[in-house]
Amino acid sequence: MDTGVRRYDGHEGHDGRPLHSLTLHALLEEHRRSRPEHIAAISEGRQLGYPQLADRVMRLANALQDAGVTRGDRILWLAQNDIGVLEGIIAAGMLGAMFCPANWRQTADEMAFVIDDLEPRVIVWQSAEIGPAVQAARDKARHRGALWLALDGDGPGSYEHFVAHGPLAPREVNTDPDLPALIVYTAAFDGRPNGAMLSQTAMMWQSLALIDIQDLSADTRFLNSGPLFHVGTLMVTLAVFHIGGSNVFIRRTDTTRIAQAVHEHRCDYAFLMQSLCHELVALNHDARYDLSCLRSASVSPEWDAMVTVVPARSLFGYGQTEVMGPVTWSYYGWGKSAGRNGRTSPVAQVRILDDEGRELPPGEVGEICVRGPTVMHGYWRRPELNAQRQRDGWHRCNDLGRREADGSLSFIGTKVQMIKSGAENIYPAEVEGCLRQHPAVADCGVIGVPDATWVHSVKAIVVLKPDAPAVTPDELIEHCRARIASYKKPRFVAFVDALPRAANGALDYPALDAAHGGGGYPGGLTRGA
Amino acid sequence: MDTGVRRYDGHEGHDGRPLHSLTLHALLEEHRRSRPEHIAAISEGRQLGYPQLADRVMRLANALQDAGVTRGDRILWLAQNDIGVLEGIIAAGMLGAMFCPANWRQTADEMAFVIDDLEPRVIVWQSAEIGPAVQAARDKARHRGALWLALDGDGPGSYEHFVAHGPLAPREVNTDPDLPALIVYTAAFDGRPNGAMLSQTAMMWQSLALIDIQDLSADTRFLNSGPLFHVGTLMVTLAVFHIGGSNVFIRRTDTTRIAQAVHEHRCDYAFLMQSLCHELVALNHDARYDLSCLRSASVSPEWDAMVTVVPARSLFGYGQTEVMGPVTWSYYGWGKSAGRNGRTSPVAQVRILDDEGRELPPGEVGEICVRGPTVMHGYWRRPELNAQRQRDGWHRCNDLGRREADGSLSFIGTKVQMIKSGAENIYPAEVEGCLRQHPAVADCGVIGVPDATWVHSVKAIVVLKPDAPAVTPDELIEHCRARIASYKKPRFVAFVDALPRAANGALDYPALDAAHGGGGYPGGLTRGA
């Protein structure tokens, strides 16, 4: 019997029948036709319409292909914010390759590590501001095969020259959006970062969620003021592109350039930390910049007078680079939610699992796990880590969370060693979070001290606020007893002046254990996050 | 070199590693956890929370599996609106099967055709109101193997009994959202309807677009007042489900039941034709129903006093069942668009192609073609038609359209035979559309009359409005000359009292040709639409 059923064929790649395929390049070609006179990007004073951007990306992809870039290859971006990041991601997707916007704030040693880890075929680098670090990294790196293109200038050897000389004629392109096309380094558990590989499918699903949540449209003018090597800014860049809006790029977070860009290009949306808002208020004391087009939740009366204050769409959530950003949002609060991190987005599934992969009921703390189209395809060249983080059909976030009775999520903390009290599990992060709510506590770490009967006793190492009134161990223990299950409360409290911390700011638990008698933890859990 | 690249594995089906999979069932299981106390559906006075709906769907899928339903099988719904339609689509997806909500307004012969065309393993049928037609269809159909379940009642042999006795324990389910899970009959080109097979992926992408466009949220209470066998209502049902809102079902469009449901269940959204709004105003003359929760664009002052009038989100677009509804929307007007049908949605690509698959430039009329995740997997058991409609990676809509200079789309008409004027193509639908804009024209058909020099002369056969002032052929020709390219204007105009039409209402062009000297058309085009 011929059922007439045709299988989804978007996955067969170059088969000439991509009936169900949608890619970033396809969106760009659609924008070329749907929005022929609309501004796609403003970058370093240059304004590009969607047809111009589509031409540039076509030339770039063809030039990359002629330079030998093919499926699975990497393109490394060692430069600051620029339209080239968006162009590079789309072009990489056309070739089945992967584009990596690296952290330009890194040291030369860290950049050299990324070069050797990625072994990119092409590197775009920037001389201004970060040139010495990049040059030193180039000298240090063992990987020698890359084509280096300078973002500065437009002569031979520059990115601009490379793009301008790429052929414009369309070629057959990759139509499989499920291949990874983006690598973002993150998750330096053990000191070295790992590159999360994200597909075009992951980007597009997250974009569709963001378009609704952040109220994006073709009229949006998004100021890319945050770094594009972070998913927090990059996901919005991609969503604004997806819906046909305009991305305005400035090289990096800089108060004056932000004010100039908002004033000149009428940006209505940007990520601005509260401290930056205060700087903008101070900078603009003489009202030389018209910032009224920016829509924003209220920060201060001075700020309100300067921007368009709109009702806050609370955008707090839980997520990580490995799942293309947030997977829960307070936007999905549906009334007031008990969990601080809102509810699951319409493009993900979230579970709280124990180490054996069993789902935990509401109220119990376990590892936050995610499944769905936004989940990464693993870390680049980390098969052991991938096997650890992605098993049984779930991506393990290496973070602890709790599903509340009303279905919302609370992020509890990063996943560290577990303290056992009899058969019960105690997560230090949860006890620490409770202690931090006490007005006298400035900082704290919680460890397990071996106990002959109960495996562990909980011990809290506490730094008090200098100006806080005196507090006794019993008062802190009582504070915890009132807020978390009794078996989780500290049995011992020690006061110290400072806690040992690693270079990345994370609490140094081994040092804490050594100094305060901790140890004897059950195995099987990854340290740090 | 181990790149650590893991291929997307959602397509491997029962592989136990559906890391990137998202399905309707997965959404339901997420809602079970995220919205444990939220109303999923109200149907026939019964209110179901998301956990209850999730349990019912689990039982239904298991019962269907125990009844022999497996991958590729069909389930036919010969009944009116009910929560069972949503349950059935989700359960079918779990089994890799397909659910078909059939038109219950059909005659017994038409229902019998669908039964024999689908050869479903299970049929849910309704006795109330449509029982006689269904019984007659059952007798007429050659297909005898189906399990018939009655929607009415809850005793043995009923749908309710079947669901209630399905095992609740989870089983391994299909995790491939790209398999077709829904069949909607449409497109009766030649008198018999064809079943468009749509995947869960198609439904979910369209839902994500609709959530933004129609401002849907978990707070939405959507009144399913239109028929669920039409994609226009069903796509909203699915989108409301996707975002965790509440679907309120009434059996069918009925003014009193609509008023009751809005009043009782505080529905804020519904599809209501303008005539229905006027009926509701008349029905509610004594204000017995509180309809103020309904949000609506303005219809009349009386209506405004009854409902919450919100700024209109103009929802006009272009689409068809075969692509899961609209693929362009006036919502994406980005300013005022020249084309009546707005711009392409963020989940589709649209092209205007000629018969050889070449893209036509803006301003030229060709066939509207679509590519992307919402495109159907073809018509059920119509391999020849599928080969015609889906080729070179594009779904051909069998409709004519034009991309305007500003990138927006104008739907011109259904695709019929083409008239040639020298090397130029003339589409009768375009000329007819122009003629219909004349105030004196009630109806018209345009044909090609063989011409020795130009291949064809255009001839318009016109029905005038009875009360219209007199109009001459020259005036109508001049009317067209002012509006469309001169070579498209009619050279001859004939006035008639009525046009020949087929049973489905379509103009009978062969009859028109025979009566008015038409003929000699170039081949290669599908007749009708």
Across the major sheet of chain A, the strand order is 2-1-10-9-11
| Uncertain residue segments of chain A | 1-16, 523-529
Structural class of chain A: alpha/beta
- Assembly state (oligomeric): homodimer
Specify the number of helices of chain A. Answer: 15
Name the biggest interface. A-B, 79 and 79 residues
Distance between the termini of chain A: 54 Å
Provide the helix percentage of chain A. Answer: 25-40%
**Broad shape of chain A:** globular
Sequence-ordered SSE layout with sheet pairings:
The structure is a homodimer of 529-residue chains.
Chain A: H1 24-34, E1 39-43, E2 46-49, H2 50-66, E3 74-78, H3 83-95, E4 98-101, H4 108-118, E5 122-125, H5 131-140, E6 147-150, H6 159-164, E7 180-186, E8 194-199, H7 200-213, E9 221-224, H8 231-242, E10 246-249, H9 255-265, E11 269-270, H10 274-283, E12 295-296, H11 301-304, E13 308-309, E14 317-320, E15 325-329, E16 343-344, E17 349-353, E18 365-371, H12 383-389, E19 390-391, E20 394-403, E21 409-414, E22 419-421, E23 424-426, H13 428-436, E24 441-451, E25 455-464, H14 473-481, E26 492-495, H15 509-516
Parallel strand pairs in A: 1-10, 3-4, 3-5, 5-6, 9-10, 9-11, 12-13, 25-26
Antiparallel strand pairs in A: 1-2, 7-8, 14-15, 15-16, 17-18, 18-20, 19-20, 20-21, 22-23, 24-25
Helix pairs in contact in A: 1-2, 2-3, 4-5, 7-8, 9-10
Can you walk through the features of this model?
2 copies of one chain form a homodimer. By secondary structure, chain A is of the alpha/beta class. Chain A is built from 15 helices and 26 strands. A 5-stranded mixed sheet of chain A has the order 2-1-10-9-11, sandwiched between helices. In chain A, strands 17, 18, 19, 20 and 21 form a 5-stranded antiparallel sheet that branches. The first copy, chain A, has a 4-stranded parallel sheet with strand order 4-3-5-6. In chain A, a hairpin with a 2-residue loop joins β22 (419-421) and β23 (424-426). In chain A, α2 packs across α3 and α4 packs across α5 (131-140). Chain A is globular. The first copy, chain A, starts with 23 loop residues before the first helix and ends in a 13-residue tail after the last helix. The model of chain A is unreliable at 1-16 and 523-529 (pLDDT under 50). At the A-B interface, α1, α7, β16, β17 and β20 of A face α1, α7, β16, β17 and β20 of B.
